[in-house]
Amino acid sequence: MIVNLETYELHLLQEKDFWRICNFMVANEDRFKTYFPSTLAQNLTPDLSTRFVKEKLKKIQEKEEFVFVLKNTEERTIDGIFYIKEIDWKNLQGELAYAIGYQIEGKGFATRVIKELTKYAFKTLGLKTLQIITHKTNVGSVKVAKKCNFNWVKTLKKSFTPLGSKPLDMELYELNYPEKL
What we know:
The chain has helices at 18-27, 29-32, 37-41, 46-61, 109-124, 139-147; strands at residues 3-5, 8-12, 66-72, 77-88, 93-100, 129-134, 151-160, 168-176.
């Protein structure tokens, strides 16, 4: 366990999480189809989720990407998935990405988890720069970035193309170690 948040615990992904990840993604399909289309597509069935988890566990082992799940200890569900990804070990930089379920939206869990993962990335992994990339209309994600002391850097022109849509401009936020944690 990385952190305990009342009735939630943040854990590094485990093989046994496949079924709960599938349930989480399917239950939140409408929320994730625009900005998490790949993760959603990889978790629409238990078989797909099994493959997804095995691939992610390999990436964790190879230190290419770290995937965490936010588990509700009472309901025994997964209500959030968090990534430290796009890791550049030469420049000690990584990107944080996250998706939370409708049941915990607006309750501060994403902010609390991102603060903890920022500490983990800086202190345990030794990264020096973290990024959050979000669309300006994703108000919740923009708030998380700002509450976690990430600074807006620039607009990334046409840097993300949702399925069946035109390319979107995305906003880049960064935090450098040892800024405020």
